[in-house]
TrEMBL record:
The chain crosses the membrane at residues 43-61, 90-110, 143-163, 183-203, 210-228, 260-278. This is ABC transporter permease. GO terms for cellular component: plasma membrane. It comes from Phytohabitans flavus. It comes from the Bacteria. PANTHER family: INTEGRAL MEMBRANE PROTEIN-RELATED, MEMBRANE PROTEIN. The keyword Membrane applies.
Length: 285
């Protein structure tokens, strides 16, 4: 009687990382498309959550009374609640100044933490790089998939705004204004995704550590942006990405090229630093 011994497939060795049961399946196409496919469910959840939150809170605008500003705490004025009596003012505070930026910040931190850190932490990164793929290509393709998710989230928010634009009395805001603001939503996600990607690639920390440090930086920057006027140091806002995300009021004024340049440049620098450091590191340590 002949006895056979089965050899564990890579899918068994690294569960959930390779669909189809073979490591080679990870390269049936680009790393970008494979990453998108593997993360399709989580990306859909992020997009649907952002779209629903934006839609629900935007729908509340007709119930906002003319004297609603009297009920807004003074400490919240710096977070975009300077004027809730107009459609643009209300959305700037309740939707684009509070819920959406925090959600997209956490998206960037969570997704960027998976770009390199998860595979390195599990030991799967060595298996990937044993194939004909460079560290640079791997990181850039993974980050491109993150960028596609950020664009999807922004598109969901944009669609939600258009869906309730007339019924929620938001038609005083031009479609181009919504487009400009949601473009900044995507860029904010790209920036924090780049920071998380760069930290993970540069230091080889665990996924939890990368997420925690990036999300912590995001929350700290958000708090600094909101509280700076309260402490008489409004200049500190220029040090945070949230200033370039919303302070020039894209809902009213449209696209601001300077803001886009700052957000995109910071994201590029963070990713480039991560690529450089990843190529210098000894991944076996």
């Amino acid at each position: 009687m002949t006895m056979t011994t089965s050899t564990p497939s890579p899918a068994t060795t690294a569960p959930g990382r390779v669909a189809g049961g073979s490591l080679g399946g990870a390269f049936n196409g680009s790393v970008f498309t494979r990453t998108l496919w593997d993360n399709r469910r989580s990306l859909l959840v992020w997009a649907v959550a952002a779209g629903l939150l934006a839609l629900v809170y935007a729908s509340f605008y007709p119930q906002v009374s003319a004297d609603s500003m009297a009920n807004v705490p003074e400490a919240m004025r710096g977070f975009g609640f300077e004027d809730t009596s107009t459609a643009a003012g209300y959305l700037r505070g309740a939707v684009f100044g509070l819920l959406v930026p925090l959600l997209v910040t956490f998206y960037g931190a969570a997704t960027g933490a998976r770009t390199i850190s998860t595979d390195e932490e599990s030991g799967y990164l060595d298996l990937l790089l044993a194939h004909p793929i460079s560290r640079t290509r791997l990181l850039l393709h993974r980050y491109a998939a993150l960028a596609a998710g950020a664009i999807l989230i922004a598109a969901a928010v944009f669609a939600a705004m258009l869906a309730v634009r007339n019924s929620a009395d938001l038609d005083s805001i031009a479609v181009s204004g919504f487009a400009a603001q949601t473009l900044n939503v995507a860029l904010l996600g790209l920036l924090f995704g780049a920071v998380a990607t760069g930290i993970g690639a540069a230091f080889g920390r665990s996924r939890g550590a990368v997420f925690g440090s990036t999300a912590g930086l995001g929350v700290l920057a958000y708090a600094l942006h909101g509280l700076a006027p309260q402490i008489g140091a409004e200049w500190l806002r220029y040090l945070t990405p949230y200033h370039y995300y919303i302070d020039h009021q894209p809902l009213i004024n449209g696209v601001n090229g300077g803001d886009i340049a700052v957000l995109a440049s910071c994201a590029t620098v963070a990713v480039a630093a991560g690529v450089w450091r990843l190529n210098q590191r000894d991944l076996r340590r």
